[in-house]
Structures are given as structure tokens and as C-alpha cells.
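Input (structure):
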């Protein structure tokens, strides 16, 4: 398979040292202790108010861990985590590796796992650095940056599958459920404490979060930060990421739940 360069989508951060796994377990939303020896997952770093600072793939690599996060929030992710290292045997920094993808030839699937989540598991028979997404794609790292930069096709698959990109424009603004991170298997509700965990748990147990991630399509241009309204003019959400496609525009948006239509939008589909 041909590698797809994901340099514009992910920066690879190395978290090394004897305490790397325990350190990340205490800082991120995902439960690394529940994974098998060669398994990875999706996870997020929150601020104390439960808002997502960064999110991406967590992959084991040669006894250490790698975090694949958007380049715009990579440096601040390292800075934030560094404040909590204290006496732990952990080193944080650039890995020297490149994020790559495989499997764009397989069309995205809207199927989810039996438990309703979109978890990430290692693909049997493939290098430990590559992990399989439910739609058939694989994501991982390589020492080769790859020449194929068909990022638009990869992003289109992300949009179809509900994989959200947390960048400078939308970080520190939404709790995980608003970005659909719980349906990606990125949030554990049983692992114990981590920064922002109390807010996440309260939102889950006190009632359904009123806004969530959705895919919208329009023949007219959509822009990041654009307000979305109901047909009668009431504000219903905002666009957080956009992609030009052959027949117009697609966008991921954080919108009110249970809407049937949005003004100026041809199609609205909730991920979960």
C-alpha cells in the first residue's frame, strides 16, 4: 500500500521513560491500562474545566509512547504536560518520526464496533506502528515522511468516520462529548482521575450533553467559525472544520442535538 503523508495533520510527540505509561494514564482521558501490549487508542488532553486542549492517537513504540496531535497544538501540549512531570521518570519532546496513513483505497464505512464505539486496534500482520481504524484505514508512524500528500482524501475519510481534528481554532472550547470523542473510545468513565475528569463525569451522569458533533454538507461555501441556524433563525451551532469536495463543501460542526434541518445546509448527519 502507498503511504499517505499526514505531516499537515499530525505532529508526533515522544513520551519516553520508565513512568511514561503511568504518567499518560494520569493525564489523558483514555485508559491505557485497558489496552493489550501492542494496542493503541484515541485520547485527549483536557484543561481543568474539562475542555479539550488536544486529541489524537496514542501508540506504543519501542517501549515508549507516541502522541499524534495536530501541529498547531503540539508545542503547547508538550508544555502543558511538562508541568506535571515533577519527579516522574518521563521525557517529552519531538520524536523525529512522521505520521503516515494507509488504506485510502478502502471506502469509509459508517459501521461501528459492537459496543457502539469507534475504537482503534492493531491490525494483525502489520508493523506494531500501524493501527487499524474501523473504516479500514491504518494510521501510524514512519521514519519516511512519504511523498504522497493526498491529505484531502484522508480528511474526507475522517469527516465520514467522525474523527475530529483539534487545532488552534477549536482547542480549549468544547468538552469531549461535544466533539464526539466518547464515541471514538477516547474517554474512559471508569479509569479514575485525570485533569477535567470531574466535569466529564458530571456531564455524563447529570444528563445528555446538549451539543454534539455532526457532519453537514452544502453547495455553498462553509467557513470555520461560521454560525449555523435553524430554518427559523435560531442559533444552533458552529462550524469547526471544513473541506471542499467535488459537489460543494463538507464541514464538521458542533450543533444542538436532535435537529432535523439547518438553514443553508443541504444535509445534516449526526455521528452518534
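Output (sequence):
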Amino acid at each position: 500500500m502507498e503511504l499517505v503523508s499526514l505531516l499537515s495533520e499530525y505532529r508526533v510527540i515522544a513520551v519516553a521513560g520508565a513512568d511514561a505509561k503511568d504518567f499518560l494514564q494520569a493525564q489523558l482521558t483514555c485508559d491505557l491500562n485497558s489496552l493489550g501490549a501492542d494496542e493503541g487508542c484515541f485520547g485527549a488532553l483536557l484543561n481543568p474545566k474539562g475542555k479539550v486542549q488536544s486529541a489524537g492517537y496514542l501508540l506504543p513504540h519501542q517501549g515508549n509512547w507516541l502522541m499524534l496531535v495536530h501541529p498547531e497544538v503540539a508545542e503547547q501540549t508538550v508544555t502543558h504536560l511538562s508541568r506535571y512531570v515533577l519527579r516522574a521518570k518521563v521525557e517529552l519532546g519531538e520524536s523525529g518520526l512522521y505520521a503516515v496513513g494507509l488504506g485510502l483505497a478502502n471506502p469509509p464505512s459508517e459501521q461501528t464496533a459492537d459496543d457502539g464505539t469507534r475504537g482503534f486496534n492493531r491490525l494483525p500482520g502489520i508493523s506494531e506502528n500501524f493501527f487499524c481504524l474501523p473504516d479500514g484505514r491504518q494510521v501510524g508512524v514512519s521514519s519516511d515522511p512519504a511523498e504522497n500528500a493526498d491529505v484531502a482524501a484522508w480528511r474526507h475519510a475522517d469527516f465520514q468516520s467522525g474523527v475530529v481534528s483539534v487545532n488552534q481554532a477549536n482547542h480549549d472550547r468544547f468538552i469531549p462529548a461535544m466533539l464526539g470523542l466518547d464515541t471514538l473510545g477516547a474517554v474512559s468513565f471508569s479509569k479514575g482521575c485525570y485533569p477535567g475528569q470531574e466535569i466529564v463525569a458530571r456531564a455524563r451522569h447529570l444528563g445528555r450533553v446538549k451539543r454534539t458533533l455532526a457532519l453537514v454538507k452544502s453547495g455553498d461555501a462553509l467557513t470555520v467559525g461560521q454560525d449555523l441556524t435553524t430554518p427559523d433563525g435560531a442559533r444552533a451551532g458552529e462550524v469547526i472544520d471544513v473541506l471542499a469536495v467535488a459537489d460543494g463543501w463538507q464541514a464538521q460542526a458542533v450543533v444542538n442535538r436532535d435537529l432535523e434541518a439547518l438553514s443553508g445546509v443541504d444535509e445534516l448527519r449526526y455521528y452518534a
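Notes: The CA atoms of residues 34 and 191 lie 9 Å apart. Confidence is low (pLDDT under 50) at residues 107-118.
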